[in-house]
Structure prediction request, 416 residues.
Amino acid sequence: MEKIPILKFGEFLLVTIQVDLYDQLAENLEADLINLVRKHHSRGVLIDISAVSIIDSFMGRILVNIAKMSKIMDAETVVTGMQPAVAITLIELGLHFEGVYNALNIEKGMELLRSKIYNLDEDHDIYSSE
Amino acid sequence: MSTIQALQSNSKLITEKWLLLQASEEGDFADAQTEEQKAEAAELVTSLVKSLTENSIDDPDSDAFSKVKENVGILSLSRARQGYSPRETATFILRLKEAMLEVLSSEITDAKQLYADSLKISKILDNIMINSFESFIKGREDIIMRQTDEITEISTPVIRVWDGVLALPIIGTLDSSRTQVVMESLLQQIVESESSIAILDISGVPAVDTLVAQHLIKTVSATRLMGAECIISGIRPEIAQTIVHLGIDLSGIITKATLASALRTSFDMLRYDVVKKSERKLATGA
Prediction:
C-alpha cells in the first residue's frame, strides 16, 4: 500500500507531501503520524505542502485534525510552503486552520517550531520555579 | 422621374447639402471640415444611393445596405474614440436624412408619391442611424473596458519596503474581482521574496463597507495561511467610525493608523531596532 514517508529529525517529525493526496492516503498519514509522535516522543510536527496544488475541505480537515491530535499529545504542528492558489481556495471554502501554525518554507517552519517549543519550556520553568 | 433615379442623379447635390447642414450645426467649427471628411461624406452618399433598388427601397433591413451600415459603423466607432458626443453623432446621420428629403421634395412633384417615398427613405436612414448608434456605444464600451483593465493593473503594485516586509497600497474601491487580483499578486510576491510581513495600506480606499471589510479579512487570512503576518494600515478616522458602526470585528487583525507605524510594528516583529547614528555611538561607547 502506498504510504507517505515520515522522517524523524531530532525531536521533530518531518513530512513532505509530494503527491496529490486522496482520502485513504490522508487518513493513513493521520494515523501513522500520531503513532510516530507517541513512539518518538516528538515535540513538533512539520508538514510541507509546497508540492500540493489541490487541497479540498477533507484534506483541510485532516490537517486540522493532525494539529489538534498532536497538540493533545504535546506536539506543535506547522504547515509550510502553502501555494497562493491553495491559500485562496481554503479561504473561499471558509477553512481557517485553527490550531495550525503556518510558515513560508521549511527553514522558517523549523525556526517557528523551535521558538514555540522553546517558549513553552520557558513557561514551564517559570511555573515549576514558583 | 422615379425616386431612385432622382436620388442617384443628385448624389453630388445631396453631399453638398449634407455638408452645408453639418457645417451650420458645428457653428464656429464650420471651417474645420477637412478634405478627408468631404471625401468620406461623398463616398457614403454614393454608396447609399447606389444600394437603392426597386427591391431594397421597400425593405430597410435589406442586405443591399450592409456595406453602407458597415461604413457608418466604422465612422461612428472612430467618432466615439475621438470623443464626439452622442448628439453630434446622431445629428450626423439625421442631417443626411434632411438633405436627401430636401432633394427629393424638389425633384418629385406628385405629393402622394413624395410622401410615400419620403417615408421609405426615412425608414432606411432610421435603420442606418440605429446601426450607427450601436457602433458608437460599442466604441465607448470598448474604451471603458480597456481603461478598467488598465486601472486594475496599475493600482495593485506590491512594494518591497524592507527585507521581508512587503507593502501594498490599495487605491480605489475594493470589489470582489479586485480583491482577487490584489490577493493573488500579494501572495505571489510573498512566495517570491520570502517575506514574513505584508502591510495592506487602505488610505486610498474611499469607503469601507461590510463587503470591503470581508474582502480585507479574507486577504489577511490567506496571508496567514501562507505563514506571513498581515498588518492593515492607513485607517482614517471616518473609516474607523464606519467599521465600528457596522459592527465589523477586526480584533484578530493588526491595524495601524499610518504606514509608518505599521513599518515600526513590523520592525518590532522582526526584532530590528532603528537607532540614530549618534545614539548608537553613545551606546557602544565609541
